[in-house]
């Protein structure tokens, strides 16, 4: 009687990130997971990090212990099989199907992806060419089926002859290809920075809460507002806005009658009463921004806050961790009940976005 071959184990954790931030994501994982038996492969500019189990055990428990939404620098989070390398151009499909069958995986959908790099963009056509034949073979082998817990198979191509297969689970993944929410720039917005605030709302606020949290008639302050990219988003939601900046505001935005422009220092200004929103995209030291936002939140001058922290060139995770730690300490000491999230959004560059809701 032939011995039964054990299934291929998902011994790797594959996470996508912005190219250039691989070491920051690896540092975040290593710091937050402590003594977890993982080896990190973080090639500069690759746009992803592989966390490999050193003893070959499944990474599923570790992947669940640090959900995607709780990370700062990750865009997508997958349990993964070892990469398939040196695939033949004559038959890329057979090794892929064989690895899935060996893993025992089943799933309801497929997603073809590549790193967010110039080389990755050149691979887009490959996924399209392989989609139909792979779907057909997966169905025949029972891997692609209608009822599979909404699991999704990701085929992450890093070269024409190299792919890594990952599995994602509902509630612990990004639903967007590459983990990227791509937004269209509004033609009448004063600056492209407007997309940072729009993406933050999508990231941190469920759509079911938009009607309440972004209600027309709400009040907001935009610190460092000029020329008005973030103020524009607030006005589009029907909010009355205090725009605090010594620089000039967009003239069309001022004609709406919904903006009061105050040429004052955003770090020193205080509101005339309690507001619904505080937003801030001031270019300054992260520690200084944290101290200013902490004053607003401990004084309960607003209910919601979205602000950016500009990052240093080195040890970016350590800076973010220290700043968020200081903010949490001050809120806890003041007895404030709050919800806090921080993410490196797609429309961010050398910064991260923080969201705080007081409860």
UniProtKB/TrEMBL annotation:
Domain Ribosomal RNA large subunit methyltransferase M THUMP-like per the UniProt entry, residue ranges: 91-169
Q: Where does the record place it?
A: Cytoplasm
Coiled-coil-forming residues are none
Q: Which reaction does it catalyse?
A: cytidine(2498) in 23S rRNA + S-adenosyl-L-methionine = 2'-O-methylcytidine(2498) in 23S rRNA + S-adenosyl-L-homocysteine + H(+)
Role: Catalyzes the 2'-O-methylation at nucleotide C2498 in 23S rRNA.
Task: Describe the protein's quaternary organization and the partners it interacts with.
Answer: Monomer.
Protein name, as recorded = Ribosomal RNA large subunit methyltransferase M
Protein species of origin:
Halotalea alkalilenta
């Amino acid at each position: 009687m032939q011995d039964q071959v054990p299934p291929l184990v998902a011994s790797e954790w594959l996470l996508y990130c912005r190219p250039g931030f691989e070491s920051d994501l690896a540092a975040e994982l290593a710091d937050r997971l402590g003594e977890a038996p993982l080896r990190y492969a973080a090639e500069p500019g690759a746009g992803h990090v592989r966390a490999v189990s050193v003893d070959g055990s499944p990474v599923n428990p570790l992947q669940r212990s640090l959900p995607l939404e709780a990370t700062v620098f990750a865009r997508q989070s997958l349990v993964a099989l070892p990469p398939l390398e040196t695939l033949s151009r004559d038959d890329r499909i057979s090794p892929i199907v064989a690895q899935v069958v060996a893993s025992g995986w089943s799933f309801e959908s497929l997603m073809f992806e590549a790193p967010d790099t110039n080389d990755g963009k050149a691979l887009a056509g490959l996924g399209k060419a392989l989609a139909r034949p792979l779907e057909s073979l997966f169905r025949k082998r029972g891997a692609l089926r209608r009822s599979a817990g909404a699991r999704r198979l990701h085929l992450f191509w890093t070269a024409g002859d190299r792919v890594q297969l990952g599995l994602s689970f509902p509630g612990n993944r990004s639903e967007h290809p590459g983990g990227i929410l791509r937004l269209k720039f509004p033609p009448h917005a004063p600056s492209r920075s407007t997309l940072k605030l729009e993406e933050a709302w999508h990231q941190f606020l469920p759509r079911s809460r938009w009607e309440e949290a972004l209600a027309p008639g709400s009040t907001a302050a935009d610190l460092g507002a000029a020329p008005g990219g973030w103020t524009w988003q607030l006005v589009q939601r029907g909010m009355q806005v205090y725009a605090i900046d010594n620089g000039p505001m967009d003239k069309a935005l001022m004609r709406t009658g919904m903006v009061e422009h105050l040429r004052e220092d955003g770090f020193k200004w205080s509101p005339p009463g309690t507001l619904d929103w505080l937003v801030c995209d001031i270019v300054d030291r992260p520690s200084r921004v944290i101290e200013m936002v902490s004053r607003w939140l401990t004084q309960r001058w607003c209910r919601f806050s979205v602000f950016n922290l500009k990052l240093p060139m080195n040890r970016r995770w350590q800076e973010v961790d220290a700043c968020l730690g200081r903010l949490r300490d001050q809120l806890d000491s003041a007895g404030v009940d709050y919800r806090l999230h921080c993410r490196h959004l797609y429309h961010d560059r050398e910064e991260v976005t923080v969201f705080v809701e007081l409860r």
